[in-house]
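Q: Hi! First time doing this. I have a protein sequence and I read that you can turn it into a structure. Is that right? Here it is:
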Amino acid sequence: MADAVGMNGGRRPCRAGALRKDERAQVHVMEVVTAAMLVISAIQALIAAHVPTDVEEIDLTDIRLVGEDALNVLSKQPASDPSQRYDNVLTMHLTNGDVDLLRENLTALIPTEYSFNLYLSNATATLPLGPVATPLGDAIVAHRLVCLRQNPFENDVGGTVLAVQVLVWRELR
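A: Yes, that's right. Below is the predicted 3D structure, encoded as structure tokens:
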């Protein structure tokens, strides 16, 4: 057996695989430090994890309702030209290709703290109607299916049954 020098300078026999008391203490200290770091890391991960609150869910619901309400108003408002037999203001503007008037109506209906993009789509293509901005934060799409007697956007989005989509988000001010 090999001899090892002890803490007091004396010699004692050393067994293979055996740790001295101070080495065992160091291992225990490292175990405690590692366990503490693991607990601290877990707490930081929980703090950093984003759990949606009820307030955020209500905020997203409010955004959705803003877009849906604007489309509902335009869908239920009778058209100003009854001779053409438009179903409502929404289909009248789309059938006539009046994108600017449609955007003006939506701008008047959507509160100023919100912004929106307007799209028209069929099953295969989507056409932006007007300028497109990039939402900052959460955005919600409100949509309405419309049936047009004639489609002035036929080259871009074919068909007579189309989806009007309004992408709405709250502006950071």
